[in-house]
Amino acid sequence: MDQTIPPSRSPGLLASLRAGVGLVAQLLIGALLIFVASAVAMMTAFAGLMIAGAALLLRYCAVRQPAPVPVRVQDAPVTLQGRRTPRGWTVE
């Protein structure tokens, strides 16, 4: 006569170990994703601050050149010719 052992109702040591390793793997992957997302956000913020700093430096530390003085070529007065059009006066 053959005798069989009834299946145990509690999970074995190997199944518990496998579930524990799976849980730790999920936690590590989640922590890695959060770390990468925060690193990308920090790099983006740092790049924005660098661009803003460069804009401020260009705005306040740039060498200002005086506006060019217009030079009159002719000393004679300029006479403009005006004529009446249907929309009003036009000066040429």
Q: Which descriptors apply to this entry?
A:
single chain; 92 residues; two-stranded antiparallel sheet; 1 helix
Secondary structure layout:
Blueprint: H1 13-60, E1 82-85, E2 88-91
Antiparallel strand pairs: 1-2
Structural class: mainly alpha
Task: Count all strands and give the number.
Answer: 2
Shape: rod-shaped
The count of helical stretches stands at: 1
Low-confidence stretches: none
Q: Considering DSSP H and I runs of 4 or more, what fraction of the residues is helical?
A: 40-55%
Radius of gyration: 41 Å
Topology order in helix (H) and strand (E) letters: HEE
User: What's the average pLDDT?
Assistant: 86
Q: How many strands, what sense, and barrel or not for the largest sheet?
A: 2 strands, antiparallel
- Tell me the fraction of residues in β-strands, as a range: 5-15%
Query: Strands of the biggest beta sheet: in what spatial order?
Result: 1-2
Oligomer: single chain
State the end-to-end CA separation.
124 Å
Plain-language structure description:
- By secondary structure, the chain is mainly alpha-helical.
- The chain has a domain at 14-63.
- It is built from 1 helix and 2 strands, in the order αββ.
- The protein has one helix at residues 13-60; strands at residues 82-85, 88-91.
- Strands 1-2 form a two-stranded antiparallel sheet.
- A hairpin with a 2-residue loop joins strand 1 and strand 2 (88-91).
- The mean pLDDT is 86.
